[in-house]
Amino acid sequence: MSRTTLASVWAVEVVFWSSLGLLAWTHLGYPIFAWVLARVHPKRIVVADSTPQIALIIAAHNEEDVLERRIANLLELDYPEHALQIVIASDASTDATDAIAARFAATHERVQLLVFPRGGKVAAQDRAVRATDSELIAFSDANATWAPDALRWLVRPFADERVGYVCGRLRLERADGSNREGAYWRYELWLRAQESAMGSVTGGNGSVYAVRRSDYAEIDTRFGHDLSFPYVMAQGGRRAVYEPRALAFEKPSRDLEDEFKRKVRMFEHCWLMVLRGGMFRGGGTIFITQLISHRLLRYASGVLHLALLASSVALASSGIVFALVLALQLGGLLLAGAARVGLRVPGSGLALYYVLITSATVVALVRYLRFGVPAVWEKAEGTR
To answer: 54-252 — its CATH code?
Structure first.
């Protein structure tokens, strides 16, 4: 074998072992690391039952189909009326959104409608925050509903002065109220709890979260609070924590096509923040390790899988390990294919969802590099 051929084989083996090792770390090694550290050296927080003044902001663009239900749900929260301001930040809605919010505002003093020119979700949130003066600011989506005690649970960790951001738990349910949380989502929530115990979560969700006013940051309007606020808090010496008892509920996407499109849109913003958001500029060694392990490598999992598959094919005849890894990958794809055509094979549903997510990361990266990311957003119809 020539020197050139040996170098080529060595390069392919480097790709194989690197991609395999990084995938194993982000999906298996890091969760074990987080679980161990959360138990060996937990960073506890002070909590207290209190009801500070809070403004709850709903950014809405053409949400007439869900807004009435949403405001009614917020008015029923178990929280003192005098301490809660409900703000509907209309992002240039052209349907009945403004009229619905105005009707509630006319009969409920604590409901306020603010109408802004089209600028996107984050821009509407920023403008609404400037128009309020409460100690804490909570946010949610127009298509979510909250448990009656969600807000009380959400504010409890702010008794600890180190806490700047708190996110609750999103529960996915069918229209009839039955659970639709899959194994992958339950795994993500479990990992979020480990990260919170380690110090700070690396991501939240837009359905139920709150921030201390003094820690609120006006970020690039193309970013989302879900991913950016945790690392902004950590870089400022604050903690971003998870309170699973603060429950929000949403409908899942109608089908795989809707879910795939939603994931692509989400990952486009994630790639923007990873590549241009200053995510790794501080927060401490442990937190940066969390970001690399749970965010960067997770978003790069689609590219890593393509590299692993290509190198496995090239090396399959060179050794049993390479052939076995290739067989496992092909088996996973077959399982996903079985679920796609409606066959009920154990593990096929999870395999299909995993393939969907990893594929979305690659499509999102290509779209981000080609088109960039707009500040405005369109709602996911299937989740209304």
So the answer is: 3.90.550.10
